Each structure stands twice: as C-alpha cells, then as structure tokens.
Amino acid sequence: MACAMQILEKFEMFSPYINLGLLYIEQ
Predict the structure, then answer these.
(1) On the CB side of 22, how many CA atoms lie within 13 Å of its CA?
(2) Superkingdom of the source (predicted)?
(3) What is the pLDDT along the chain (27 residues), one digit of tens a residue?
C-alpha cells in the first residue's frame, strides 16, 4: 500500500503537466 501512496503522490505532482499536455494535444 505504501508503494501505491508514493505513486499517487508522484502522479499528483505531475498531473498539472499532464493536463497541460492534453490541452495542447486537443487544440
């Protein structure tokens, strides 16, 4: 479970960049 929490924390850190990338691709 600790591994999953660490992965989620990393994902939350990178999610803003992922969202920006998706917005850029959709245009």
Answers:
(1) 6
(2) Eukaryota
(3) 688 889 889 888 889 898 899 899 988
